[in-house]
Amino acid sequence: SRIQETLKIVIVGHVDHGKSTLIGRLLADTASVPQDRISAVQRRCTEQGKEMEYAFLLDALEEEQSQGITIDTTRIQFHSEKRDYVIIDAPGHKEFLKNMISGASDADAAFLLIDAQEGVREQTRRHASILKLLGVRQVHVVINKMDLLDYDQESFDQIVTDCQAALANAGLVARSYIPIAAKFGENIVHRSSNLTWYAGLTIIDTMDALTIEHSSHDAPVRLPVQDVYKFDHRRIIAGRLESGTLKAGDEIVCWPQGTRTRIKTLESWNLSEPPIELVQGLSVGVTLEDPVFLERGTLITNSDAPPLVGTHLTANVYWLGRNPLVMDRRYTIKITTQETSCEVKTIHRVYDSGDLSVISVEGGVPANFVGEVTLEAKQPLAFDPFAGVPETGRFVLMDGYEVCGGGIITGLAGEQSTDD
Ligand code: GDP
User: Fold this and answer.
1) What residue ranges carry the coiled-coil annotation (predicted)?
2) Is residue 53 in contact with ligand 1, taking CB distance under 6 Å?
3) What are phi and psi of 218, to 5 degrees?
4) DSSP 8-state secondary structure symbol assigned to residue 66
5) Which of 28, 140, 265, 319 has the smallest C-beta neighbourhood within 10 Å, fewest atoms?
6) Which helix (H) or strand (E) is 7 found in, with range?
């Protein structure tokens, strides 16, 4: 039976290591693109006296896009027999970090691609740091171009050992190491007869075996309140259910106050009958058993999985502002529908988003740099670590009316004042 949810995959790898070839192969070998497109690319390669380049399949799709047809190549879709996937692609570190941290996208799993002939290089270390910074939990390492090493097991084992050390340095552990030859479609969808010593899964089987950390039924309930309406003497709470499911009778808690009550009814504006259960991603209306205090910005959760609540939070911020992110200046922080003023309490570390090198914290966080910071909000906020609930684990920073940064929350900072 097919799994409903679309899994979001990110593939990181140095240029020329074979990322486009791997993606092209995934599209072709799962029959996610029509055969005539593949034939067209094949013809073009033959005309130019070249071998088939699966990487050109992406160029071909891009061309179509520029002609106003279909596909966004930064979100490449394909499917296995089991489920749908989207590969989130980014041309470089900067765009990647910016997209990920600023909330344009988030990945369920990452594949780190290494050229077998190159082995582990500085790039691999940087990619590991990026994945760590982003809190991607399911990381698999793919070692490509095994044909250039004559499919030699010992060479593969050596790269695995080197890579394990590099990842450990960044605080990461890969879940598996997969030897492939993307060019020949080996161990991507079809098993390789040249790599019989490899007992693990192919790329597609690895993907199919991935679990989404929270399927919607065991995910914590997160309903940020957008508005409260008076309607026929009833108070209807409106918002988008960012995570989890809700039914009438469910016990809930309203944060940051921590007031408990129950869902009385589910409301619907466009269905003739009220729904029995609300699932994540829906814009919803509910009424509550008790007349609790509630306004735009209140976070409704289930009672079993409370959020973090406080004024101090630790975060990784991707900065885009014209002026650097500095201490002693007030910004506006927005987490879903919550909004308050904040300032930077501490800048722990500043990374160049291009090469991940660490620079001095003295001048604050310049544009296109990433800061590991502690923020202090004027009012208590309710949130989650990004690694726990991504939807309520990210925020936007504004300088005046301008969005100037985005970030992911890593936790609640220790310096809570007692009167919070
Ligand atoms: P990208 O820059 O990471 O997207 O790399 P490409 O997919 O464009 O591949 C770079 C080059 O490596 C191309 O010439 C590919 O044909 C070649 N290549 C990709 N995979 C393999 C492989 O498994 N074996 C060999 N020998 N070459 C490969």
Assistant:
1) none
2) yes
3) -110, 10
4) H
5) 265
6) strand 7-13
Dump pLDDT digits (tens) for 22-68.
999 999 999 998 888 899 999 999 999 999 999 888 877 766 655 54
Q: How far does residue 149's CA lie from ligand 1's centre (Å)? A: 14
Which is it for the CA torsion 102, 104, 106, 112, positive or negative?
A: negative
Ligand 1 pocket, 394 CB below 6 A?
no
| Main-chain phi, psi angles of 410, to 5 degrees | -100, -20
Our answer on whether the CB atom of 145 is closer than 6 Å to any ligand 1 atom is yes
182 C-alpha to ligand 1 centroid (Å): 7
DSSP 8-class letter at 245 = -
- Give 314's contacts (C-beta < 8 A, 6+ positions apart): 372, 373, 374, 375, 409, 410, 411, 412, 413
Q: What is the pLDDT of residues 60-103, one digit of tens each?
A: 776 665 554 444 456 788 999 998 888 877 666 666 666 665 55
For 111, the token pair is 């594949």
Q: Is the pLDDT score of 295 beyond 60?
A: yes
Atom number, ligand 1, closest to the C-alpha of residue 51: 16
pLDDT in tens, 142-196: 999 999 999 999 999 999 999 999 998 877 899 999 999 999 999 999 999 999 9
Phi, psi angles (nearest 5°) of residue 57: -60, -35
Q: How much is the pLDDT for 97?
A: 63
Q: Which secondary structure element, helix H or strand E, spans residue 299, and what is its range? A: strand 299-302
Tokens of 361: 């914290």
> Which of the listed residues 42, 183, 190 should we mutate to test ligand 1's pocket, taking the one with most ligand atoms within 8 A of CB?
183
Determine which helix (DSSP H) or strand (DSSP E) holds 97, and give its type and residue range: helix 93-101
